[in-house]
Backbone:
């Protein structure tokens, strides 16, 4: 009898939870300069939303010349960002790691920071970003490089039941 009751509770709670619609917001965007070096293609996913704060993570891909000794580099910017604000205008703050593998066998890690502005109307899927993205290197010695970027992207929503 207890097993039957337990199974019934599971079935009812599962059907109630399946009635709730959630929206998973994802984006893809091109960033000129910015966290990926000279330019990058990025995938972004929103994982938290409360009041005026959206938290996102992103993974990017870039291919850029490094220098004569290192050749070209495959750059993977991995970031966590906070979008703060209501409606179309958002302050963007973030931190991450830029992992670079070069054609000559070198390996670099940079820490990009993000301070930026994002414009996206809630009813539209296109968005624009302008960011200050200083790059910090700490593997050999501490180096700080001022950098920035501009982006255009497309947001797509996926409803899950």
Residues:
């Amino acid at each position: 009898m207890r097993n039957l009751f337990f199974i019934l509770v599971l079935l009812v709670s599962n059907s109630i939870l399946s009635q709730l619609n959630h929206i998973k917001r994802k984006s893809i965007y091109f960033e000129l300069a910015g966290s990926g070096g000279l330019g990058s293609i990025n995938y972004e996913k929103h994982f938290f939303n409360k009041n005026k704060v959206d938290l996102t993570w992103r993974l990017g891909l870039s291919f850029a010349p490094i220098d004569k000794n290192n050749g070209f580099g495959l750059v993977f910017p991995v970031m966590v960002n906070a979008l703060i604000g209501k409606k179309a205008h958002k302050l963007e703050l973030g931190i991450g790691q830029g992992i670079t593998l070069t054609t000559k066998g070198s390996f670099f890690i940079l820490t990009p920071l993000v301070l930026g502005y994002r414009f996206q109307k809630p009813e539209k899927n296109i968005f624009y970003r302008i960011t200050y993205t200083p790059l910090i290197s700490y593997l050999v010695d501490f180096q700080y490089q001022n950098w920035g970027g501009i982006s255009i992207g497309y947001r797509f929503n996926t409803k899950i039941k």
Notes: The first strand starts at residue 22 and ends at 33. The radius of gyration is 20 Å.
